[in-house]
Amino acid sequence: MAKIYDFKALNNKGVEVDFAQYEGKVLMIVNTASKCGFTPQYDGLEALYQKYKEQGLVIVGFPCDQFAHQEPGTNEEIAEFCRINHGVTFPLMAKIEVNGDKAHPIYNYLKSAAKGTFGNAIKWNFTKFLINRDGTVVKRFAPTVTPEKMEKEPQFRLDNQLCFRLYTASRLITQAYHPMLGEQGLTYPQYLVMMVLWEKDAQPVNDIAKRLRLETNTVTPLLKRMETEGFLTRSRGREDARQIIVKLTKKGRDLQEKLADVPEAIGSSLLCESVTPATIPSLYAMLDGIIHQLQNKQTNQ
Predict the structure, then answer these.
(1) What is the mean pLDDT, run by run of 10 residues, along the chain of 301 residues?
(2) Which of 120, 187, 211, 243 could make a disulfide contact with 111, Cβ separation 3.0–4.6 Å?
């Protein structure tokens, strides 16, 4: 089945744009006009672009003169109008048709992927299509729906998009570990605890939770279950009875040798074109930045 990434179009300077470059981005595609009652929406679109472009939003404008001859200018004139009157910096394409036999293939695709209330045809200028990061056309917005209203739509929540992808990534990583860990009777969360204790045995629960970036009350039930299964012991600290010290049992220590090859094996399986040994440090930095910002946000709430 075709996706938006399979298409190409000319920009307003006549240069071919391959939409494959937008894979992984949130795309909004809108047919525009300079002499329309909805033309002031350029301001709202540019505001959205400036607000969310660092999070991966790309707005692509396709000028169209099919509705009451409201886009009569050349590509150069349209670009100049948008720049001077609305400060537009998001990508503008060459003027196209969106309906009829000469409709651009991108619009034939969009219309079939997200039908309108009264059929497939584009009804007027500033009809908008929202496409998520995996290329799915999630919604068509009527011209009357302003960019400000669109921002409130659940489909437009870019933080939701991030949550979905972080969850998918964590699930796939967990699935990669499962065959090897299952042979030893370990779950992925238990393996993470074991790695912390293999670095340094006999640690307070608070230190383990901090290392895993989890709350103590989240780690404690996991440690209790692992104690029942014989991987570790828990006891009160000698110097501070309020502290619970966690130590590995022989069964837990023996697992370190049995699972020594797991990190390298899993690491190799997770490498791909976009994740290589050279890019992993930058990936660490990006994830650390996300975690830091989210923690600060929760602390300040």
Answers:
(1) 90 95 90 97 96 88 97 96 96 97 96 83 95 87 93 70 69 79 86 91 92 88 93 90 91 89 72 70 78 70 59
(2) 120
Residue 230, classed as helix, strand or coil, is coil
Q: Is 14 left (phi over 0), alpha (psi -120 to 50) or beta?
A: left
- 8 Å CB contact between 23 and 56: no
Nearest to 64 by CA among 3, 143, 4: 143
CA 30 to CA 62: how far, in whole Å?
6
CB-based contacts of 230, cutoff 8 Å, min separation 6: 249, 251, 252
The Cβ of residue 205 has, within 10 Å, a number of other Cβ atoms equal to: 17
Say how far residue 102 (Cα) sits from the centre of its chain.
Answer: 35
Output DSSP code: residue 158.
H
Closest CA to 30 of 14, 8, 46: 46
Choose among 44, 135, 30, 149: nearest CA to 92: 30
pLDDT score for 48: 93
**Tokens describing residue 152:** 């409130």
What residues are labeled active site? 36
Mapped onto helix, strand or coil, the DSSP state of residue 51 is helix
Indicate the DSSP class of residue 71.
-
Position 298 scores a pLDDT of: 64
Cβ pair 107, 98 in contact under 8 A: yes
Res 171: pLDDT: 77
Report if pTM > 0.85.
Answer: no
| Cβ within 8 Å of residue 190, ≥6 positions away | 181, 222, 225, 226, 231
Q: What does the angle CA 130 – CA 101 – CA 122 come to, to the nearest 5 degrees?
A: 30
Task: Report the alpha-carbon distance of residue 99 to residue 67 in Å, rounded.
Answer: 10
